[in-house]
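Quick log. Single chain, no ligands specified.
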Amino acid sequence: MQYDFDKVIDRKRSGSYKWTANKEKFGRDDLLPFWVADMDFATPPPVIDAIRKRLEHPVFGYSVRRESYLRAIINWLSVRHNWDIKREWLTFCPPGVIQGINLLLNVLSEPGDEIILQTPAYKPLINLVSGNERILVRNELKFQDNRYTFDFEDLRNKITPATRLLILCSPHNPTGRVWSREELNELAGICLRNNIRIISDEIHADLVFNGHRHIPLGSLSDEIAMNSVTCFSAGKTFNISGLQQASLVIPNRQIRERFENIRDIAQINLENTLSEVAIEAAYSGCREWLDQLIAYLEGNAEYLASYLGQHLPEVNVIRPDGTFLVWINMKGLGMSSGEIKDLMVYKAGIALYEGKEFGEKSDGFFRMNIACPRSLLAEGLNRMVSVLQNGKV
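-> predicted structure:
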């Protein structure tokens, strides 16, 4: 079946945060939004059909996780990511990945402990560290040959006896890097030798472009699996983030039991009835949809890079290996980040995330969400080029 990703869907009437919170975030409500990381594509038909079928039952009380749901997740990890996990390793945090990581921080560290995060980094991950009275240690990624890599020397130098955790973003938000097996092995080895646990945020794991492969951190070896927790969700992949759910793979029984205990105390252990139905349908019947989506996203990334390269060569596009996020370096324009943002908002009428949201050294960068019909992307890029070529607010 051929799916239509070119169809423009009116999301304003659905209460979409991405389309209706522009005034709150940027001061205007008439912007084309390329900021919030959800997609403007219709959720896959099998997911919608499964939800409709569940809606035929008139009761929406508490529910237990069905075996078919658990098998669908385990099978997805095996078939899509070549990772065979044991049933008992799988656990859940229904509110979402960030909430799961928040609980894990409190399980695996104490106030005053040091937690390493590779920057630029997704701001909610930064907020988790500071908001839980932990000390954020920034291991800045190296940028060379228009590509981001780990800075292992810097990482080793910043480890102290107070370092307890490293939070990994894989694939990486905002740069779009898909880490290689060799990179992940070296990172995990450093952590093992220094008794540092790893929490791996793999929410974009399924969105990887041709020529790249996502390697789940816990799949590298038994030793690494026992020293890490992997967090993932179907939300980004199938555009069902509003249903809120996160799955965690925790092979270490002691960590898993402590996590489940603190989660259960907070009474956030029961699955949303419709999210369970949606996720089972997604993992069981949407592989062809996902393959077509990835090809479309890759086409959008190529279109963006080509368009800006032709019309605005001063702007440097960091080509992503995956995700639907593109990291754009606008320092070559010779303007401050604030000036560029004002041009985008008040002249171009588009909304992007500023680089400083992701770290101190990312001023002059912007993150653009390309998960939209190409006509909307083309409109946004045309507006961007028109105002930046003039360079005046």
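The radius of gyration is 21 Å.
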